[in-house]
Amino acid sequence: MASPLVLPFPSNPRFERRGLMLDISRNRVPTMAWLKWLIDRLAILRFNELQLYMEHSFAYSAHETVWKEASPMTAHQIKEIDLYSAARGIELVPNQNSFGHMERWLKHDAYRPLAECPDGFMHPIAGWKHAGSTLYPSEGSAAFIDSLYTELLPNFQATMLHIGGDEPWELGQGRSQQAVAGSGKHAVYLGFLQKLFQLASKHGRQSQFWADIVLERPDLVAALPSDVLPVIWGYEADSPFNAHCKTVAGAGFGGNFYVAPGAGSWNSFSGRLDVAAANIANAADAAASHGAKGILLTAWGDNGHHQPTPTLYTPLLLTALEAWGIRDEITDLASLIDAIFYPENAPGNGAALLAMGQIDSLLPQPAPPNSFLHSALFADPDTL
């Protein structure tokens, strides 16, 4: 069996920052024991950043209504994981979505006054939603987020904070409609994003943020503060990383942005491994060409986090190979998976995971990022 310690790491990595973002807000909050097991594997692969993506899964002292059924991480647990990570050369970076994807807050009566659309909105993909998902960009919403940062951030040693900011689906449909009609969605969006940047700075943190909305208007990228860190995400084999990296680097962020490919496992039971491999390689090549600071593999749990945990293992290994520029030097992925993730088992699990990851590619493909089997199982019988 191959040893995980004999990977041919060069003296210098391809990227200064090599991270994993793990979604802990879509029905699966990991145990402390498993998180430590994962961190040990990240250390073997020489990752140096971990983010636990949070919407409502931190036990904020004044907000039990929101997290009481979500098995949240506590302040004590975060501090413990922070120290455990640091001892292995990994920075635990806080990740609290702070604009969109706030539906788990805004569905509760106490938080509806913060919503752009308190009574629901028409989602462009999923149809009518009975509660809002996006904060109304106001001073009140900023004060609310400030209160969350005040409690959350002291539990981390990291100098960065991921503020989120992606997919504010209903912005302009509700309370900001007049402002959007006057100055445009992107100007209103950027105005509130600037408030979040200021809050992060107030708490002594550099802001990371999802760059999808500002990249809809590339001319606005240059209007961003010079000390923030855009994170360019895309999850398909042909995601336009090269064009987006060129835009961000050309606006003065060369050396200060990340790319964020996906593990390709959410909305699947076996993982879309062919898509993930191409996506990760595409992101890494574009990032290297345009001087990115880091690569952040995203492991989402959309629509219930139904994927088995081992579907993450191969994308983690592939990301490490790309981050260190040793993709072409590794020919036996199966043995490395066995050695790193199954060191106490007989060989064979790696080969099984690689084979399992091809299942979705053999079946008809619905709209990405979905698999046929996952979509079929959860399909509405009335629409078939």
What can you tell me about this protein's structure?
- The structure is a single chain.
- This protein is globular.
- The strands form 2 sheets. An 8-stranded parallel beta sheet has the order 3-2-1-10-9-8-7-6.
- Helix content is 35%, strand content 12%.
- The protein has helices at 32-44, 64-67, 75-86, 103-106, 139-152, 177-183, 185-202, 241-253, 273-289, 313-323, 333-341, 349-356, 372-377; strands spanning 17-23, 49-54, 91-96, 121-123, 127-129, 160-162, 206-210, 229-233, 258-260, 294-299.
- α9 links the parallel β9 and β10.
- With 384 residues, the chain is of the alpha/beta class.
* pLDDT averaged over residues: 96
What pattern of helices and strands is seen along the backbone? EHEHHEHEEHEHHEEHEHEHHHH
The tally of beta strands, per DSSP, is 10
Number of helices: 13
Helix content: 25-40%
Low-confidence stretches: none
- The gyration radius over C-alpha positions equals 20 Å
Largest sheet: 8 strands, parallel
Shape field: globular
